[in-house]
Amino acid sequence: MKKYALFLVLMLSGLAMQAQRGPAKSFEFGLMGGLSLYSGDLSPQEVGLYFQELNPAIGIFGRYNVGQRLSLRLGATFTKATGDDMRGGFEMRGLNFRTNISEVAFTGEYNIFTLGNPKGFHVAPYLFAGVGVYHFNPQGNLDGAWIDLQPLGTEGQGLPGYEKPYTLTQLNVPFGAGLKFYINNKITIGLEMGGRKLFTDHLDDVSHVEVNYLDILEGNGSLAARFSNPTLTEPSAENVIYRRGGDFLDWFYVGGVTLSFRLGENAGPSGRGIGCPTF
Question: Distance between alpha carbon 39 and the CA centroid of its chain, in Å?
Fold first, then answer.
């Protein structure tokens, strides 16, 4: 993640320099703390929000207020995703995973309206959407030891007739909504919740593809076969071909509290686009 951190610092520096050009523009630096939720093949059900899989999330961001309605935000978020069939009611399948997630995202925020005193406390609901790059690395637990799953090829990845190994750094689409509380001309507190549209079904290393246990055992080894189907102890013609997951792609969600501080001399109400109310 060193290159992501360097990229973030350079971009924030550029935004800070741009914020000094013009009285209606300003720059904020902020922190985020909250929770993340995983939804996927190892959830109790494949689609939804399942509070068994809550995990802490932290982040930093820079926000460039372009004008009255629009802000541009660049931030980094760090969290994790977990899933276990023993918690989800699928004990007969016996799968589990965990992964750390590091994300850098560039989003646009649109203030729908503002309500309150321009020179004091005021509130603005907003929507956001953008593009992100995230890194993950699913691991499975075997007798108390956590093993990286992607190199194993638990669904035959890399073997003839199967998919290529999935990449651990991919694009996503973050989107969501929030509420900003402008405490004064310098400090803003926010509440927000957002989802991450992923383009992979392997955040948890489990997907919908049909696999043959014997292919994995012979081509990728006994450890890959054991993680592929932990409960299969006596292979037969009836049970060696299976699908580990369902048809839907994985998701993760991040929600929490943000605290940002406006920098520079342009921290006046003219940069916020404040009204009572303004539509």
Answer: 11
What is the percent of the chain where pLDDT is above 90?
Answer: 68
Give exposure, 211-229, as e/b (b: 16+ Cβ within 10 Å): bbbebbbebbeebbbbbbb
pTM: 0.85
Which fold would CATH assign to domain 2-271? Porin (2.40.160)
The confidence band for 158, taking pLDDT boundaries of 50, 70 and 90, is: very high
Residues 6+ away with beta carbon under 8 Å from 128: 73, 107, 108, 109, 110, 174, 175, 176, 177, 178, 192, 194
Which two tokens mark 23? 């009285």
The continuous run of DSSP H or E covering 171 comes out as: strand 169-182
Token reading at 17: 């320099």
- How far apart (Å, rounded) are the C-alpha atoms in residues 221 and 214? 10
pLDDT tens for 200-245 read 999 999 999 999 999 999 999 999 999 999 999 888 888 999 999 9
